[in-house]
Amino acid sequence: MADASAPLVSVRDLKVHFPIHAGLLRRRVGAVKAVDGIGFDIRPGETLGLVGESGCGKSTAGRAVLRLLDVTEGSIRVEGTEIARMPQGELRRLRPRMQMVFQDPQASLDPRMTVEAIIREPLDEHTRLTRAEKRERVAELMDAVVLNRGFATRFPHAFSGGQRQRIGIARALALNPRFVVCDEPIAALDVSIQAQVVNLLEDLQERLGLTYLFISHDLSMVRHIATRVAVMYLGRIVEMQAREGLFAEPLHPYTRALLSAVNEPDPVAARTRRRIVLKGDVPSPANPPRGCNFCTRCPDAMPVCREVDPATLEVGPGRWVACHLHDPAVMRGQPTRPFGAEGPTRRASPTAYDTPARSAT
Ligand SMILES: Nc1ncnc2c1ncn2[C@@H]1O[C@H](COP(=O)(O)OP(=O)(O)OP(=O)(O)O)[C@@H](O)[C@H]1O
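^ thats the input. predicted complex w/ adenosine-5'-triphosphate below
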């Protein structure tokens, strides 16, 4: 029998490096390390929020997990199947199980196709349903995303941004996927309708048992929707915790800086909140700093931070934060070691990696 608590998606040591070519012969002279060794699990029905500043590698990670991009290294298992190096022909068979909702509904919908044709496209490609069955399925999907069935013959330009995103969501759900990557699904929408689309995504998750990777730079939205949160900086995950732990007691200096810039709904907490302004710019992913890649901007950085082996900082099962300042062994000047069963020194959170699906509301 399938283990209900087994991860639906399991990513290990994932790297996506884009080659940089130069010169007359277009020789390879380096690489943009957009994703540089990340790992996480997502359990069925769970939402993992992936946050970080623009350019930190969130979209590249999301696309790579669905194999919309080729990966440089690492493992991606979806429902137990290794897909990291699977040929496109074989991947096609798995496409119905994993889908993506894109940031810009305007750009992701073909303006020459009617809503019905857009939502029907995956059914045409992957199923042998009859015309009537497809029409019925499209109508069901329009109901599911709360779009009037009567709009099926209209074109995308006739809709508002929020309605266009609903069309994109209906298309993503056409083949009954289990796993959906939502890449900044509300970033291009008016603030007034962002909450409606997020509520719709939550509602669909509950009704259809969906599992989400929810990519966003908006921490307040992630706080609302995610069960667990992974924070990315310069191609790496620097911290991953259950949502409550991350927002109540962020461990990594980068997470603390990001959270210090978010509006605090609790007025008492807001009064004591100290804004942390990070110095300098984000380094180039083509030339990341030596040691801990946050050390050039970290308010807590120490000389040892330049020496640490980045591989020993990798966040993954049993390790919550990629900062050796939490590791007493390093601070005593001893060799680094990953956190073991004892967890981080400041706060052991055994549920951080093992949160059961949707226990938190
Ligand atoms: N095809 C590509 N070729 C070269 N570099 C790329 C490519 N795609 C992305 N990058 C670079 O990889 C890094 C990560 O980009 P990515 O779009 O994944 O970040 P992001 O966190 O999603 O940012 P945003 O929210 O602005 O989209 C950036 O430096 C970007 O310029």
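The chain has one domain: 9-331.
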